[in-house]
Structures are given as structure tokens and as C-alpha cells.
Amino acid sequence: MGNVVVFGNQKGGVGKSTLAVLYAYWVADVQRQSVCVIDLDTQANSSKSLRRFAAGIEAVELFRQNAIVVAPPCEAAIALVAGGKQLADIELARPEMVIPAFRTNVLHLAERFDTVVIDTPPALGLRMSAALIAATAVVCPIELEEYSIDGVTDMLKTTFGVRRRYNPQLRLAGVVLNRFNPHSLRQKAAMQGLAMHFREFVIPARISTRSAIPEALAAGMPVWQLPKSAAREASLELMRVFELLQPRITRSGEAAPEEERA
Prior knowledge:
- The protein has 262 residues and is an alpha/beta fold.
- It has helices spanning 16-29, 45-49, 95-112, 126-134, 148-165, 185-198, 212-218, 230-250, 257-261; strands spanning 3-7, 35-39, 54-58, 78-82, 115-119, 137-143, 171-180, 202-208.
- It has an eight-stranded parallel sheet with strand order 3-4-2-5-1-6-7-8, with helices on both faces.
């Protein structure tokens, strides 16, 4: 059974989709594993970056019983289950109908792929809840700006609440510091606050603001394949973060004492 990894934050604009896409590329390119990416965001940014890997099924279909399950592609290591505006209708559906259907379909995908990556909308609703109930691990990207600690607190409360009530296998893999500006006093202050409150959850590496990252995604490739010298430092930062994340994603689902206290 493959890992099911949710990239989520209840605050928007933190680079959630960017990191979900780059992590999928990393698993495929570096780990040499098959990856299915499910885009649950109506903006479908992940789908735009990965459109060449479209598997011919849309994410909204996974909320229905007996959805067509995607098989691993023969050539590419990534398969995309695309997002779209129709996903907004899921928020009006009956939870007892759509959440079990989504979980069942994701479990079927996890039987066929080494990793399933789920990009979630930036708000708590049925889609976010369904993703967490189906997942084995959560990655929470944040941008070190005002309200970042509040956003992390909300996401941790949601994650551990779902773990206690619905999904005992769910674990928080880590909080990823994204778009870091070492010259910003505001960001340094936010980072100190995070260290005080969430030291055990924060990945001890950070991703700086790099123009090469959006440039590579716009070109439909991971940043380490971008033929520019500016992409090298961005690649090193991303590789380090993913190397630190992966053992937390793949470890046993037993609850850590820190998680129970959060």
C-alpha cells in the first residue's frame, strides 16, 4: 500500500500547490517511484503544471462510488487526476456519501501507486476533510508572514482532530518553511515564534524565494531540470527539504507523544 500524502494549509498563498507538484516530481525522478497526484483545488494550479500527465479522469469523480480507478502509466511515472471548478459542488454534498466514496477510491489508487499526493483547497471543508480521512501523512507548507502561526495552529488542530476521530493512521509529517527571505526581520520574528511553539514539527530546512521555481513549473518541469545556473540553489534547497520529509512520511503511523499533546 502506497503512502497518501496531503499538502494542506487552511491559509492560502503559501506555496501548497508548488510543493505538492515538486514533491511528486522528486518522488518520480529521485525515488524512482510511481506517483498519482489528485488536485482538489478549484483553481487547479497543480493540474496546470502537470497537465502533460493527465490520466483522463477528474478529481470530482473520486467522490462518487465506483469511480474509474487510474492505473500507473506505462512510460511516465506520474499520473494526474485533475482539479476543476466542479469541485466546488462537493462542498454542498452529503458528507456521509462523498467522504467514504473518496476514501475508497484513494485506497484503490494507493494499491496501484507507490505514492498518492493530494493537493487540497486552502480552507477547511468537505474536500479537505475527505483528504485527511484518506491520508497517511500531512505536509503543511507555510510562508513566514503575519498570521503564519495562527494558520499552523489551525491546521495542526484539524489534523490531530481527524486523527483522533476518524483516521488513526494519519500523522503530521512536518511543517515546511517556504518562500523564506533571510533579509526580512518580520519573517525572522515569525520563524522564532514557530520555533517556540512547534519546534518538533518544523522541518529543519527552508525554501527561499527563488524565481527559478515558478519558471520551471510554467515550463512543465521540475526545477532541477531547468537548464539555468539560477536553478541550482533552488534545487539544493528543495532536495534537502524532501530528503528530511521522506522518513517522516514513510515511518510507522504510531502517534508521537508530541502529536497527542498538540
